[in-house]
Amino acid sequence: MVKFISNEEQEEQPFSVPFNDAQLLDAYSNAVIGASSRVSQAVVQIQVQKAKAAVRPQRGGAPSPGAGGGSGFIISSDGFIVTNSHVVNRATKIQIVLQDGREYPGRLVGEDPATDIAVVQINADNLTTTLFGDSDKLQVGQLAIAIGNPFGFQYSVTAGVVSALGRTLRSENGRLIDNVIQTDAALNPGNSGGPLVNSHGEVIGVNTAVILRAQGLCFAVGSNLAKYVVGKLILDGKVRRGFIGIAGQGVRLNPRLVQSLKLAAPSGILVQQVEKDGPAGLAKLLTGDLIVGFEEEVVPSIDTLHRLLSEDAIGKTARLKVLRNNQLLEFAITPAELH
Question: How many Cβ atoms are within 10 Å of 19's Cβ, its own excluded?
C-alpha cells in the first residue's frame, strides 16, 4: 500500500518502520492459534443413532441409514455440552468423543428446535470448559473462528470474519431465529453444534447452518440467545412458548383502510384456521379475521406474533387487535403454553 504525503507532513511525522506483510500474517496466525488452543479441549465430537426416517440421505458418500453426528462444546466441568437440536433430535443413542479420545454415552437434557439449540450431559468431572462471550458487542469484520468435526474428521479449525449481524434464519420447525451471525468461516456437515469463537477464545455463536451451493454463507446462533436457551434447558428441559391456536399468513392490507383506521403497519395476519378450543377460539376469533396488533405491539407477520408469544405471555390476558368487516376490534385473549 502506498500513502502520498506532502513534504511538510514528512518533516512533522516521526520516522517509523511500517509492518510488513509477514508480520501482519504472523499476528493473524497467532490470534487464530491462541483462540483455538484456549477452547480445543472443550470441543467434542457427537455421534448419534437415529430412526431411519429421521436421517437424511448423505450426498457424495456411502449410505449410512440411522447414523448421524456433529459437534458440541463443554460449558461446565460436570459434563454439560451445547450442540444443535438438529444434531440430536430423535436420537436413540448419543455418544460423545472428547479431544483426548475418551468416549462417554450422552444424555439429552433438553432441546429447543425453535432456536436449534440442545444440551447433552455426560457423566464426567473436571472437564475443560468454554466461556460465552457477548454477541451484542460483535462488530462486522472482526475475527471469527469455527471449530468442529467436519465429515467426522476430529477437530478442524477454520477462520474468517463476522460478515453480517442481525440475520434471521428459519429453524426446522418453521420459526425464525433472530440475531443470527453470518460468517465466511467455512462450515461443513459435522460442524453443526460447534463453537464460533472470537480472538479471545470466547464462544460468540453456535454454528448451525450453511447455504448449499453458496460459498461463504454460513450462520451461527448468537451466544446471548444460546446462553439464555441453554439455561432454560438445564433448569426445565425445554423453553416455554405461548400460542393462541390459529393458522394464518401475512398479507398486505388495503391502503385506504390503513389510512382511514390510522394503522401503524400496512400488513397483518390473515386468520385461515382457528382451533375451536384454543385461546383464539375461546376469544371468538373467526376465519377471515386480520390480526394487526398484540397489546401495544404492531403485528405485521406471523413471525412477529411468534416473537411476542414468549414465556412471559403464557396465561396472561392480552388485547388482540383485529380487523373484521373493515372495523378495528379488540379481543381479550389468554395465550396458552405450546407443547
Answer: 11
Q: Distance between CA atoms of 170 and 180, rounded to whole angstroms?
A: 10
For the record, the C-alpha cell of 84 comes out as 444443535
Is residue 325 within 8 Å of residue 290, measured between CB atoms? no
Own/partner contacts of 39-42, CB < 8 Å, gap of 24 or more, are 39/73, 39/130, 39/147, 39/195, 39/197, 39/201, 39/203, 40/99, 40/147, 40/155, 41/98, 41/99, 41/100, 41/128, 42/73, 42/74, 42/127, 42/128, 42/129, 42/130
User: Position 204: which residue type?
Assistant: I
Q: Which residue has the cell 396458552?
A: 336
Residue 291 pairs in a beta bridge with: 269, 322
Catalytic residue among 116, 156, 223, 301: 116
Helices (H) and strands (E) in the chain, counts: 7, 21
Convert the pLDDT of each residue in 286-328 to its tens digit.
999 999 999 999 999 888 999 899 899 999 999 999 999 999 9
Catalytic-role residue among 135, 192, 223, 267 = 192
Q: Model-level pTM?
A: 0.78
Grid cell, residue 43, equals 470441543
Distance CA 48, CA 67 (A): 6
Active-site entry in 36, 71, 86, 112:
86
Q: Which residue has the higher pLDDT, 300 or 210?
A: 300
What spatial distance separates the first Cα and last Cα of the chain, rounded to whole Å?
59
Nearest to 333 by CA among 287, 266, 278, 286: 278
Residue for grid cell 425445554:
238
Is 86 an annotated catalytic residue?
yes
Q: Is 54 helix (H, G, I), strand (E, B) or coil?
A: helix
Identify the structural domains of the chain with CATH numbers, from first to last: 135-227 (2.40.10.10), 242-337 (2.30.42.10)
